[in-house]
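INTERNAL AUDIT FORM
Audit reference: QA-55
Scope: verify that the stored structure record matches its stored sequence.
Auditor: D.O.
Record contents follow.
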Amino acid sequence: MKDKIFISFSGGVTSAFMTKIIFDKHPNAEKVVLFANTGKEDEATLAFVNDCSVNWGINVVWIEYNPQKEWGKRNWFKIVDFKTASRDGEPFEKFIKKKGIPNVKNAGCSSRLKELPMHNYIKHFLGWSNYKTAIGIRWDEKHRINWGKAKSKNLMYPLVTEFPVSIEFIHDWWEQQSFSLKIKSYQGNCDCCWKKSKRKLLTIAKEHPSKLNWWANMEQKYSSKDGYSFYRDNETALDLLDQSKNLPKNKMAICDTKISKLKMKQNVFFDELDLEARCSCNFDNDFLKKK
């Protein structure tokens, strides 16, 4: 019986590289690649996912959170593609309508918008019951792995066990390719995700203030129900926009290709600005908690 491998493609350069490695190293396995679009991914991320599919001849299945009223379909999905994928947060707003505005005290958007719909697709659309889940954790992130849970949940970490790589290797590899993800590393895939550090959010707000409009609109529409805002310390999207106006250049985020070299020379970060929460958009690691 062929191995079955589910590849979670977050839309980032690490998970894309992992996808390519799995197809190269596991040619005989039955594979499915899923990309879960929340509607708040950067347009460059959507283009990158499509480029990977076209250039590598890999079928990437695009799905979006689409809950139904029927029992067992609360975390359901619909199948879309590059052209029909939501661009204005429609799947994300469906989640907010049901569960409220997510933040550090009211998490759940990653599991509801991404992990659970993808596993439902695999189990109910494909009919798979025994499969491996490929997680995009690199060698330099291996401290994040709970190997006991990995074994019990049938998780695999090819960029740790089969082809160990660091973030520097990933970026060097992509520089040699004919296409790549055309956003800065600190921007991430979900444009103003509340799990990003404040430094990253303020930098994004300063460079692209319009990106926070949707988040501010969601707070205005739904925060009256529970009093929640997206960001830490009960700050709103408008608060971040206001603070970003006076953000000095030396406090702005930098691309992670430069981080390790700077850390060798000086302490360039401040705890209150750099706190982050794990997210499958970046690390594909929330599968450790689910499934």
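Auditor finding: record pair retrieved intact. The chain has two domains: 4-183+278-288, 187-274.
Action required: none
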